Automatic annotation (TrEMBL):
TM ranges: 12-29, 35-63
Source organism superkingdom: Bacteria
Keyword Membrane: yes
Protein name: DUF2892 family protein
Taxonomic lineage of the native organism: Bacteria, Pseudomonadati, Bacteroidota, Flavobacteriia, Flavobacteriales
UniProt key word Transmembrane: yes
Keywords: Membrane, Transmembrane, Transmembrane helix
Length: 68
């Protein structure tokens, strides 16, 4: 039940990021390249922990002070 609750908070972009990371991991295993496997692991952690731009608020939009 907790898994269903957890997955309901996911959006399509998060699923795509996880699928891409899994693809990179499998490609790294296929060509025996540790760098791809490591990068895919890092990329897989991002959607799992819902980490994006970081804590610096680099992706946040500026708050508009104009009132209509």
């Amino acid at each position: 039940m907790k898994l269903i609750k957890w997955l309901k908070t996911w959006n399509i972009m998060r699923f795509l990021r996880l699928l891409l990371a899994i693809f990179v991991i499998f490609q790294g295993i296929e060509i025996n390249h540790v760098g791809f496997i490591f990068a895919g692991g890092i990329f897989a952690l991002l959607p799992l922990f819902n980490i994006g731009c970081g804590s610096s608020s680099a992706c946040s939009l500026p708050v508009s002070s104009h009132k209509k």
